[in-house]
Specification:
- The structure holds two protein chains of two kinds.
- By secondary structure, chain A is an alpha/beta fold.
- Chain A contains eleven helices and 22 strands.
- Chain A folds into two domains: about 5-330, Rossmann fold; about 335-435, 2-Layer Sandwich (GMP Synthetase, Chain A, domain 3).
- In chain A, the strands form five sheets. In chain A, strands 3, 4, 5, 6, 7, 8, 9, 10, 11, 12, 13 and 14 form a twelve-stranded mixed sheet that branches. Chain A has a four-stranded mixed sheet with strand order 19-18-17-22.
- Chain A is globular, with a radius of gyration of 23 Å.
- Chain B is α+β, with helices and mostly antiparallel strands.
- Chain B contains five helices and seven strands.
- Chain B has helices at about 15-25, 50-60, 80-90, 120-130, 135-140; strands spanning about 5-10, 30-40, 40-50, 65-75, 95-105, 110-115, 135.
- The two termini of chain B are about 15 Å apart.
- The chains are: A alpha/beta, B alpha+beta.
- Chains A and B meet through helix 11 and strand 19 of A and strand 1, strand 3 and strand 4 of B.
């Protein structure tokens, strides 16, 4: 039996989807052109007028938006409605410490939560379920997104937020949670913690997990499914377009259906910007068709993936995206947090270190580790181990303040960090060698 | 009054000590005393040498990370109880020792102790007041 949250939308014939997208796109382009001077000037510069956009076939005429545009326009430059119509912001960390802030009207939040509700129902869940949300609640979209989706479905919602594993396990067992929403690495950690406490996979009532916000492998999926006795589903989204729920997996577990009635997806060549045919590997670009407050047109996600539209046994007609296979920039996703090397570099320079450093990312027991090796500077050298350890801890805490995750900092001898062709190799992501791409 | 110590940041890796000792040998600098502190990632080599400026220049030429730290040198008679006496004086005056190391020379009946404390001047005054003999910078080259 197939279950849908909004059957008409989710199983809409492809022709109808395209018709709907064209109609919404024309309206959205007009809305943005009238209300967002920043994007209007981009369109003017490219010589494209709203009336040039007659259907989704004209989408390629519109200019792209990038993360740099979001930074330039911070905080209100891409806002498309009066602030009095907005009810919420969500935010993500930016490259230079400047954040990306997205605005939501009540309608924007309703549509976002509906997208999450579709993801929950696609796992076979219903209002009889108990949904434990251990994504962080706050500026991060994970907690509020799945919380809202869970409400819409009518599940009993446990708004746990992240961390405090002891309490997570207690509520999970005492209240019989059946759906677990968190990052895949945290799901794996909960699995191990349950085992350590002597629980067998069949001792919990969990049936499914909805995991996202960081890259994970098929192997990790099998491990989590085994350790928790569940089926594990992927979910995709980004703050810039709304949050989780832009795309979600159905029971086939082989790619995520994009909620095409709200989001128009393209794959482009990241170097030339040229739109690539279906089935090509390239950079994912989204246009928000329904967002009122923060409607991004042709936003470059920098995620590399493939889009394919095939008949899916679940009955959904929405196009499917693969898991992101990599990035077009140097962003890493560590413990669910977006990290740019430049952020770490900024902290080092502030603290009086030369920008000679190496970032080593690895994964132990399904949890990401972040080690930062920094060359010692004369100002920070001391003859006592105590003082040097103190400097390491101070630097670690400064980096933590910037990124939101704790690194282990190692001060090393000057000129000891390997340089290739005179330039230091900044990032060593050992997770790649075990098949995890970011 | 305090004597000067060379502190060298060293990586925990093969051959580091060779670089340092070779550089000092070429500069014809004698090592009077040494100690090593180590952690998982790095070590700190501390040296008392006959010619500190020459040593520093030679090491820096070899890309070593060097700093000069003032430490307290104490001369005590080479017999049981001498160090205990110094330790007791410092304890009674609430002076913490960050680290210390000792060396003896062949020619004299003294043992020498290098002390790293928060306040060199205070430690030196208390030790002198208690009749402990201190080592002067000029003594080092004559040892």
């Amino acid at each position: 039996m197939h279950r849908y949250y909004q059957k008409d939308a989710e199983t809409m014939p492809v022709e109808k989807i395209k018709e709907l997208q064209s109609k919404k796109l024309i309206k959205q382009v007009n809305h943005v052109y009238e209300n967002v001077p920043y994007y209007r000037s981009l369109m003017d510069k490219k010589g494209v007028k709203p009336q040039d956009i007659k259907s989704i076939d004209d989408l390629h005429k519109l200019p792209f938006l990038t993360k740099a545009d979001l930074r330039d326009a911070y905080p209100y430059g891409l806002l498309a409605t009066d602030l009095k119509n907005c009810v919420r912001i969500q935010s993500t960390s930016g490259t230079t410490g400047k954040r990306v802030v997205a605005f939501y009207t009540q309608n924007d939040i309703d549509l976002w939560e509906e997208c999450c509700a579709r993801a929950i129902v696609a796992t076979g869940s219903s209002n009889k379920d108990v949904c434990q949300v251990c994504y962080g609640y706050g500026l991060f979209t994970g907690g509020f997104g799945l919380n809202g989706g869970s409400h819409k479905v009518g599940c009993l919602t446990l708004p746990m937020s992240s961390g405090n594993t002891e309490r997570q396990i207690q509520f999970m067992m005492d209240l019989g949670a059946t759906i677990l929403c968190c990052t895949p690495s945290y799901a794996a950690y909960i699995g191990e913690s349950l085992k350590e406490r002597g629980y067998k996979p069949e001792d919990n009532k969990l049936k499914v997990g909805i995991f996202g916000a960081e890259p994970w492998t098929e192997e990790m999926r099998r491990d989590i499914e085994k350790s928790l006795g569940i089926k594990a589903y992927d979910i995709y989204g980004l703050t810039e377009t709304s949050g989780p729920g832009v795309a979600f997996e159905c029971e086939e577990q082989n790619g995520m259906h994009i909620n095409e009635d709200h989001f128009l997806a393209e794959i482009i060549d990241p170097d030339t910007g040229e739109v690539l045919p279906e089935g090509s590997r390239g950079e994912l670009v989204f246009t928000s068709l329904d967002k009122e407050a923060f409607p991004l047109l042709r936003y470059r996600t920098r995620d590399i993936c493939v889009l394919t539209r095939e008949n899916c046994s679940c009955g959904r007609t929405f196009i499917k995206m693969t898991k992101p296979m990599g990035r077009t920039d140097d962003m890493m996703i560590i413990r669910g947090v977006n990290v740019f090397p430049s952020q770490i570099e900024a902290v080092l320079l502030n603290c009086g270190y030369a920008p000679n450093y190496q970032i080593v990312v690895d994964r132990f027991n399904n949890s990401d580790t972040l080690d930062v090796y920094v060359e010692m500077s004369p100002e920070n050298f001391s003859d006592t181990v105590k003082e040097i350890s103190k400097k390491e801890k101070l630097l670690a805490s400064e980096i933590r303040t910037m990124l939101g995750i704790s690194p282990v900092v190692h001060l090393v001898a000057p000129k000891s960090i390997e340089r290739s062709e005179g330039k230091a190799k900044r990032v060593i992501d050992k997770r790649r060698s075990i098949g995890i791409t970011t | 009054m305090a004597i000067k110590q060379l502190s060298i940041f060293i990586e925990n890796k093969e051959g580091t000590l060779v670089t340092i000792t070779d550089a000092l040998a070429k500069a014809e600098v004698d090592i009077r005393a040494m100690s090593v502190a180590d952690t998982q990632d790095f070590g700190i080599l501390r040296l008392i040498v006959t010619d500190i400026d020459k040593a520093k220049a030679a090491l820096e030429e070899n890309n070593c990370f060097v700093s000069i730290t003032n430490v307290v040198g104490v001369a005590i008679s080479d017999q049981p109880g001498s160090l205990a006496k110094v330790a007791r004086i410092l304890k009674e005056n609430d002076i913490n020792i960050e680290y210390m190391y000792a060396f003896i020379t062949v020619s004299k009946k003294y043992a020498y102790v290098v002390l790293r404390v928060e306040d060199n001047a205070a430690a030196e005054k208390i030790l002198t007041d208690n009749g402990i003999e201190l080592v002067k910078e000029s003594d080092i080259s004559e040892m």
